[in-house]
């Protein structure tokens, strides 16, 4: 049982087809921690890079429900590719919604996604700062120079950086009263270098390497959104929902891939002492039912995304809670599949152990569960956030 309503559309159908191709090379990319360049090219050829980009600039201007469905489908084939695409969709949703961007830069970045399949992401995390969502000013610094800004610093977990055309670097100004925000660094700018450090347990193909910036000079209009720290408040409900539901879609897709492999394993595995497939055992049937229940609960993802598109987004703390629940359910579903299969489930010859490693990465995306649950509890108690 998939549990999702059939809202077929061309982008979703395309995503399901190319995801099957991505699945064929997923194990090799995982083993080598190699970036799936061919997958990115396939996304470009399919027109999926510009799916969320504003229609005024030639894009599809897809809503969150469409973006979530495409990302979830891609994730069933290869989740690192899906994570890069999720970041792209979040970036272009921000581009549509943020009035602070200079119009010429907005148009340039948006059109490049459509005409060139250019990818973009926000580079925010630093070794000492961690995630900016927990507060603190970045060490990465932008200082005024003739005609623009010079940026120096160190970023980590820069997902998709091997192919990013646009890097929105989170930095502080060197002004007496610092401003903080996004400085847009185009690919190939002198002083911008990638250090291939990414060697994680899961999502190994995401190319989430370190970035070093040494006196990277950009024009003045590339400081696309810098504000006083106090002006960076809690995002509005729609803006908050986009990233967390896109990230949740990635890991829901991983769990569904694990479930599908498990079904085939149980149907085809016939132990000699049983003389029948494992799927004939009531214990196995019940356990699969538990996984189905977890995945059915996760279909809240699609309903919440539709609410955003309809202009009635859930409150911020509810979107964050959904991310927490969907991630927890996805992890539990894969863990149950591993427990059912024993040694075969943990063998590198089978994809289930890779799905387990990948799905555990759901816990690291901001906001993390402690922050989510604290915020939800305070909201329920009527306490000011």
Please describe the topology of this protein.
Layout: H1 10-32, H2 37-45, H3 64-77, H4 79-97, H5 103-115, E1 119-123, E2 141-145, E3 148-158, E4 164-173, E5 180-186, E6 192-195, E7 209-219, E8 223-227, H6 237-268, H7 282-297, H8 300-309, H9 316-341, H10 343-346, H11 352-359, H12 369-380
Parallel strand pairs: 1-4, 2-4
Antiparallel strand pairs: 2-3, 3-7, 4-5, 5-8, 6-7
How would you characterize this protein structure?
The protein is α+β, with helices and mostly antiparallel strands and 385 residues long. The protein folds into three domains: 10-118, Butyryl-Coa Dehydrogenase, subunit A, domain 1 (Orthogonal Bundle); 122-231, Butyryl-CoA Dehydrogenase, subunit A, domain 2, CATH 2.40.110; 237-380, Up-down Bundle (Butyryl-CoA Dehydrogenase, subunit A, domain 3). It is 48% helix and 15% strand. The protein contains twelve helices and eight strands. It has helices at 10-32, 37-45, 64-77, 79-97, 103-115, 237-268, 282-297, 300-309, 316-341, 343-346, 352-359, 369-380; strands at residues 119-123, 141-145, 148-158, 164-173, 180-186, 192-195, 209-219, 223-227. Strands 1, 2, 3, 4, 5, 6, 7 and 8 form an eight-stranded mixed sheet that branches. Helix 3 (64-77) runs parallel beside helix 6 (237-268).
């Amino acid at each position: 049982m998939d549990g999702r309503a059939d809202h077929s559309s061309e982008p979703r159908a395309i995503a399901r087809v190319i995801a099957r191709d991505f699945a064929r090379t997923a194990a090799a990319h995982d083993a080598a921690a190699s970036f799936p360049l061919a997958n990115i090219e396939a996304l470009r050829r399919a027109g999926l890079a510009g799916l969320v980009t504003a229609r005024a600039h030639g894009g599809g201007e897809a809503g969150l429900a469409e973006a979530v469905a495409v990302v979830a489908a891609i994730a069933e084939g290869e989740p690192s590719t899906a994570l890069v695409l999720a970041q792209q969709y979040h970036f272009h949703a921000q581009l549509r919604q943020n009035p602070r961007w200079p119009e010429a830069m907005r148009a340039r970045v948006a059109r490049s996604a459509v005409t060139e399949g250019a990818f973009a992401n926000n580079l925010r995390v630093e070794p000492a700062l961690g995630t900016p969502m927990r507060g603190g000013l970045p060490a990465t610094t932008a200082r005024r120079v003739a005609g623009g800004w010079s940026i120096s610093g160190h970023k980590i977990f820069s997902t998709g950086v091997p192919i990013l055309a646009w890097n929105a670097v989170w930095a502080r100004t060197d002004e007496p009263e610092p401003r903080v925000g996004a400085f847009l660094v185009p690919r190939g700018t002198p002083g911008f270098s990638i250090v291939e450090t990414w060697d994680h347990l899961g999502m190994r193909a995401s190319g989430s390497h370190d970035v070093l910036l040494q006196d990277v000079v950009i024009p003045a209009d590339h400081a696309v959104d810098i504000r006083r720290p106090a002006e960076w408040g809690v995002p509005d409900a729609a803006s908050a929902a986009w990233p967390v539901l896109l990230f949740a879609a990635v890991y829901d897709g991983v769990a569904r891939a694990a479930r599908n492999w498990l079904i085939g394993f149980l149907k085809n595995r016939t132990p000699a002492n049983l003389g029948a497939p494992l799927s004939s055992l009531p214990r196995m049937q019940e356990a699969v039912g538990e996984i189905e229940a977890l995945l059915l609960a996760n279909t809240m993802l699609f309903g919440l995304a539709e609410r955003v598109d309809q202009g009635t987004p859930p409150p911020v703390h509810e979107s964050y809670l959904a991310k927490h629940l969907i991630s927890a359910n996805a992890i539990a579903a894969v863990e149950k599949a591993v427990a059912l299969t024993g040694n075969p489930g943990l063998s590198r010859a089978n994809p289930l152990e890779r799905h387990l490693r990948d799905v555990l990465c759901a816990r690291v995306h901001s906001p993390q569960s402690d922050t989510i649950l604290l915020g939800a509890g305070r909201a329920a108690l009527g306490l000011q956030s």
